[in-house]
Amino acid sequence: MLMKILIIGYGSIGQRHARLLAAAGHDIAVVSARTVDNYRSFTSLKEALTDFPPDFVIVASVTSQHGTDLDALSELGYVNSVLVEKPLLAALPTGSHARPTFSVRVAYNLRFHPVIISLRKALEGRRIFACHIIAGQHLSQWRPGRDILSTYSANKAAGGGVTRDLSHELDLAQYVFGPLSLLASHSARVGSVTVDSEDVAVAILSSTACPLITIHLNYLDRQPRRQWIVITDTGTIEADLVKSTFSIDGESKVVPLTPDETYKRMHQAVLTGEAGPCDWDEGIATVALLDKIAPL
């Protein structure tokens, strides 16, 4: 079913959502202070909800604005579903963090990466001993042509920092192994790619399915990588989300991945109400971990 979809925020990720959903035939409008050439646009959320009453909303503003945008949607009486770019919030608010009355999903699109799908299937029936996850890419490669120190990633106040930018790994660990307990962590600014946000972070976690999980994140690696090593009772599984390869005990295969496939699968799932996307409770659990690993 084709929908009227309102996108709040028109940075690179908002533009990607708009492009893919428009190509799928949906009617797109945008709330942004930026100039928007290809879609109907508004500078006021209230005006957008009145003149373009949407079937679905995507919150793609900077991380520090997510909570404000969700509150505004509630106050303006919006009742349909929402997809919020990751992470759900920059930090848990002081006091309560009441669930909105509308349905909220979080845009952790890598849940739909075919390598992660293969990994979850391969782990069925295995006893898992340990998992090591590493993800990193030099921040200068993220937004070519822009001054990296001017981006939200480089600034704590905007919700930046590698822990929140690469929170995919925490969400995926939760998705694969179940609820996580943080055993230890450390984060720091060790390079010069940010103003004051952390550029490296390490977490040691545990879950009922996997007693030892280590996650290393960084903004400094000039060789982009997203790799998993999972040690089980019947073999070692390696997964590489950048190269889209998957191996068990060294027998490697390439897992086909088409451009924008993870986003298209995620959009399909959230728009049709399928199981799989990160929900409110899972999103809040990840934010709670972020607060402990790299407090703002």
Question: Would you mind describing this structure in some detail?
Answer:
With 296 residues, the protein is of the alpha/beta class. It has 2 domains: 4-106, NAD(P)-binding Rossmann-like Domain (Rossmann fold, 3-Layer(aba) Sandwich), CATH 3.40.50; 109-258 and 280-293, Dihydrodipicolinate Reductase, domain 2. 27% of the residues lie in helices and 26% in strands. It is built from 8 helices and 15 strands. Strands 8-9-10-7-11-12-13-14 form an 8-stranded mixed beta sheet, covered by helices on one side. A hairpin with a 2-residue loop joins β11 (225-232) and β12. The longest helix has 14 residues, at 280-293. The model has no long low-confidence stretch (mean pLDDT 96).
Write a brief caption for the model.
The protein has 296 residues and is of the alpha/beta class.
Structural class, judged by helices and strands? alpha/beta
By CATH's scheme, which homologous superfamily of the largest domain applies? Answer: Dihydrodipicolinate Reductase, domain 2
Count the DSSP helices: 8
Please compute the radius of gyration using only Cα atoms: 19 Å
Helix content: 25-40%
Q: Can you tell me the CATH class of the largest domain?
A: Alpha Beta
Characterize the main sheet. 8 strands, mixed
Distance between the termini: 41 Å
Order of strands, widest sheet: 8-9-10-7-11-12-13-14
Strand content: 25-35%
The overall strand count is 15
Number of spatially distinct domains: 2
Average the pLDDT over all residues and give the rounded result: 96
Give the overall form: globular
Q: Stretches where pLDDT falls below 50 for ≥5 residues?
A: none
**CATH topology type of the largest domain:** Dihydrodipicolinate Reductase, domain 2
SSE string, helices as H and strands as E: EHEEHEHEEHEHHEEEEEEEHEH
